[in-house]
Design a protein that fits this description.
By secondary structure, the chain is an alpha/beta fold. It has two domains: about 220 residues, 2-enoyl-CoA Hydratase, Chain A, domain 1 (Alpha-Beta Complex), CATH 3.90.226; about 55 residues. It contains eleven helices and nine strands. It has a six-stranded mixed sheet with strand order 1-2-3-4-6-9, sandwiched between helices. It has a three-stranded mixed sheet with strand order 5-7-8. Strand 1 and strand 2 form a beta hairpin. Helix 6 packs across helix 7. It is globular. GO terms for molecular function: catalytic activity. InterPro entries: ClpP/crotonase-like_dom_sf, Enoyl-CoA_hyd/isom_CS, Enoyl-CoA_hydra/iso. Belongs to the enoyl-CoA hydratase/isomerase family.
Length: about 280
């Protein structure tokens, strides 16, 4: 079955009908990939408190589910996420602000999952939605997508990791340009400055993100997760290069016995030679 057909069948289950209200966050497994979609298209997929709770719960369940190895985060209806719902903010009280102090307003942005997440960016990924995209490991961005710190205009600060992750991704100088001006960044510029890992055509973002996730899930997963965790540790937690390298080595040694030895045996047998990504077929000499 094609990727497009898989997606069509999956999304049809989540469309609004006259007898059933849509969920705030859709969830579907497609070919072993967990597809998690923000589902408030009438609000440009802006997130309110209930949506944030559901996003958090969905990613907790994804991380605990051994049947899926990669997730794709997207927005239903052609827009990734327009940030936090300003209508809810406009009538906020101390209860909501206290909630923000305890957990990321956008939901999962304070989590470090054990498994990789690919963001499919189409339409707007702005304000808190921009931060949600930065939280993901990889970003597949459509050419017509728009990213940026649009909350600058309304006195809303970044509080979902934006000031933490953005400098690590694109450097301090470019970060200051974006957070001080609040200007829009299109898909092409996002790719040029390192915000986008893949730049794709309009309307293809979700399918391309699914294909990328499918490639990732084919690899030995414990090794992949260990290297991913080491990279995050080196970037955000280690006090020195030496500490980062010690962490990397300490966690990598056990993986050799878990997956590395078997991988070496496959290579010796002829699988994966000459740079081939076919991990099941012996390459001819």
């Amino acid at each position: 079955m094609s990727f497009q057909k898989c997606l069509t069948l999956a999304f049809q289950r989540n469309f609004t009908t006259s007898t059933r209200r849509p969920t705030l966050v859709t969830c579907e497994d497609v070919g072993g990939i967990r597809m998690i979609g923000i589902n408030r298209p009438e609000k440009k997929n802006s997130v309110n408190a209930d949506t944030a709770d559901e996003l958090f719960s969905q990613f907790e369940r994804f991380d605990a589910d051994s049947s899926v190895n990669v997730a794709v985060l997207f927005g239903n209806g052609g827009t990734f996420c327009a940030g936090y719902d300003l209508e809810e903010i406009s009538r906020t009280d101390k209860t909501l602000l206290d909630r923000f102090k305890r957990r990321s307003p956008m939901g999962p942005c304070g989590m470090l999952t054990n498994k990789p997440i690919v963001a499919a960016i189409q339409g707007y990924a702005v304000a808190g939605g921009f931060e949600l995209a930065l939280w993901c490991d990889l970003r597949v961005v459509e050419e017509t997508a728009v990213m940026g710190v649009f909350c600058r205009r309304f006195g809303m600060p970044l509080l979902n990791g934006g000031t933490v992750r953005l400098p690590q991704l694109i450097g301090l100088s470019r970060t200051m340009d974006l957070i001080l001006t609040g200007r829009a960044v299109d898909g092409k510029e996002a790719y040029q400055i390192g915000l986008a890992n893949r730049l794709v055509g309009c309307g293809t973002g979700v399918g391309q993100a699914l294909q990328l996730a499918t490639q990732i899930k084919k690899f030995p997963q414990e090794c992949l997760r260990t290297d991913r965790r080491s990279a995050y540790y080196a970037t955000f937690e280690a006090a020195s290069q030496l500490e980062a390298m010690e962490y990397e080595r300490a966690n990598a040694v056990d993986i050799i016995s878990q997956e590395g030895v078997e991988g070496a045996k496959r290579f010796v047998s002829g699988i994966g030679r000459h740079g081939s990504f076919n991990l099941t077929k012996i390459q001819e000499k």
